[in-house]
């Protein structure tokens, strides 16, 4: 972990311990990366009038501030929680829109950007709600694989950062990531085995 990672970890722990000024020093260190995570989410967002990247970062930030009781392990743990919160915000936003429009505009999510995807995905995009449903099914079957997908795909964490958060070796993350991607592909394409 580099000096920035050490600073983030130390500031998270100080903030949890009650030092409000630690949060003020923390935000400049994490804002850019939070914005990158949000940008990855928003790059998959095709609807006009949807949340903007800065709005997603702001909403996630407000939810993160509410997570004061979390036992922050390190920088990767912080960004893993941020990615989870952003995913939930987007899914909740999609559900609200669907309720408001009775089945109207959904949020497509491109799978082409999944790092290390063995073969190109033949779908241009999938609905955020369908992806969320598939991830929930995967979580019921294999919670570790679902967590790895969330950290790698939504959080943009590296294999090493993901291994640190999950508490397994990088080789295990690579293997589980590959299996999870295959399972999700089949789930999202209705069982098709060839892209």
Task: Give an overview in words.
The model is unreliable at 102-107 and 111-126 (pLDDT under 50). This protein has helices at 3-16, 20-43, 53-65, 75-101, 128-141, 143-154, 159-166, 170-188; strands at 108-109, 126-127. Strands 1-2 form a two-stranded antiparallel sheet. With 195 residues, it is an all-alpha fold. It is 67% helix and 2% strand. It starts with a helix and ends in a 7-residue tail after the last helix. It has eight helices and two strands, in the order ααααββαααα. Helix 1 crosses helix 2 and helix 7 (159-166) crosses helix 8 (170-188). It is globular. The longest helix has 27 residues, at 75-101.
Write the layout of secondary structure elements.
Elements: H1 3-16, H2 20-43, H3 53-65, H4 75-101, E1 108-109, E2 126-127, H5 128-141, H6 143-154, H7 159-166, H8 170-188
Antiparallel strand pairs: 1-2
Helix pairs in contact: 1-2, 2-3, 2-4, 3-4, 5-6, 5-8, 6-8, 7-8
Quick structural overview:
The chain is an all-alpha fold and 195 residues long. The chain contains eight helices and two strands, in the order ααααββαααα.
Runs in which pLDDT lies below 50 for 5 or more consecutive residues are 102-107, 111-126
Distance between the termini: 38 Å
Q: Could you tell me the mean pLDDT?
A: 76
Q: What is the structural class?
A: mainly alpha
Q: What Rg is obtained from the alpha carbons, in whole angstroms? A: 17 Å
Output the number of helix runs: 8
User: What percent of the residues sit in helical stretches (DSSP H or I)?
Assistant: 55-70%
User: How would you characterize the largest beta sheet?
Assistant: 2 strands, antiparallel
Going across the biggest sheet, name each strand in turn: 1-2
Q: What fraction of the residues are assigned to beta strands by DSSP? A: under 5%
Shape label:
globular
Number of strands: 2
Q: Would you list the SSEs in sequence order as H and E?
A: HHHHEEHHHH
